[in-house]
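To illustrate the input format used throughout this study, we show a single complete record. The first block contains the structure-token representation of the backbone; no residue identities are included at this stage. The design step must infer an amino acid for every position from geometry alone.
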């Protein structure tokens, strides 16, 4: 027989007694944080701010904000193992409990920036001015009331206040009209013919220089320089691009022809156009061609004309007796007293 122990125990060396297994000694018992050994078992625990997962091993951060246990007046921000509170703009967090929010009186704290009077409101404040002043657009400063503050004094562009009066002025590119209030656009292109090297386009309050087709505007925005369409790859040429002053033109490699669009290239079919010079057979290829000959001929050194192959000059054309060459081929014959074999080459004594 042999002894066995219950789960959570191990058999001692004597083979009879059982001792508690400390599961925490091995990989922390699988616990994410704290492992507590027990007699015959163990359990996991989590640090403050965490809850034990359903598997009894893992620990998950407690989101105090979502569980509504934070006590924050305004905003709650969860952190690992804890949380903190913040307040809306215009409020300050209570230094004691760090949860409740109370209104900031910007006026008492001299943080309002008001030039004259400051009035506190819940979570904010507003400024106002003494009689005879108007509140600036920044809602803090105060400025003497003048004609320019009301409808810009009737000025189209700029109104300048002066003691007892005011005057209007215009932005650059405009001229004051005869009513001394309205502003009219200056047509710089009409005023100065030489303002642009090539093309001048008037705009409201300014102007723009442009260049003719084939030119590009220099960095001074006035002069024009030739645009190298080939260099900037806007030419659209299929094969070769050649820049010229104010323009460009395309060309094709040898064996190609420029199409009517003056940009794309098509292969020249030298064979069909009968410009190959081939004596017998012409074979077209993309961008070129080559010549070949009929059987019984060979291509001459000029790669165009074909010459007869003298088959008899090599091994007697395979003929056993007589070999007779003719243009494009040859034939065999036998001496008297012999018949030509069916292969038209060998000879056999007449029977």
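Output of the design step:
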């Amino acid at each position: 027989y042999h002894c066995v122990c219950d789960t959570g125990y191990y058999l001692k060396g004597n083979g009879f007694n059982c001792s508690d297994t400390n599961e925490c000694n091995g990989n922390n018992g699988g616990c994410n944080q704290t492992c507590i050994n027990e007699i015959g078992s163990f359990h996991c625990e989590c640090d403050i701010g965490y809850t034990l997962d359903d598997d009894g091993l893992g620990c998950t951060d407690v989101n105090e904000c979502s569980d509504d246990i934070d006590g924050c007046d305004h905003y709650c921000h969860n952190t690992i193992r804890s949380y903190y509170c913040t307040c809306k703009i215009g409020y300050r967090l209570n230094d004691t409990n760090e949860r409740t929010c109370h209104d900031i009186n910007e006026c008492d704290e001299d943080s309002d920036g008001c030039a004259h009077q400051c009035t506190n409101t819940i979570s904010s404040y507003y400024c106002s001015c003494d009689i005879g002043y108007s509140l600036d657009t920044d809602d803090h400063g105060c400025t003497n009331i003048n004609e320019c503050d009301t409808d810009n004094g009737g000025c189209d562009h700029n109104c300048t206040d002066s003691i007892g009066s005011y005057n209007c002025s215009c932005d650059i590119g405009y001229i004051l009209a005869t009513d001394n209030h309205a502003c009219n656009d200056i047509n710089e292109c009409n005023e100065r013919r030489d303002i642009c090297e090539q093309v001048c386009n008037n705009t409201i309050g300014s102007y723009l220089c442009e260049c003719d087709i084939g030119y590009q505007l220099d960095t001074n925005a006035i002069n024009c320089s030739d645009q190298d369409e080939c260099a900037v790859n806007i030419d659209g040429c299929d094969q070769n691009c050649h820049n010229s002053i104010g323009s460009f033109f395309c060309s094709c490699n040898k064996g190609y022809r420029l199409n009517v669009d003056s940009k794309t290239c098509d292969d020249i079919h030298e064979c069909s156009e009968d410009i190959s010079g081939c004596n017998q057979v012409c074979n077209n290829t993309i961008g070129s061609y080559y010549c070949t000959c009929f059987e019984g001929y060979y291509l001459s050194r000029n790669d165009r004309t074909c010459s007869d192959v003298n088959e008899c000059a090599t091994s007697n054309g395979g003929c056993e007796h007589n070999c007779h060459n003719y243009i494009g081929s040859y034939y065999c014959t036998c001496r008297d007293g012999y018949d030509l074999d069916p292969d038209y080459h060998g000879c056999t004594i007449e029977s």
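Structural context for interpreting the output: The mean pLDDT is 86. The helical segments are 188-191.
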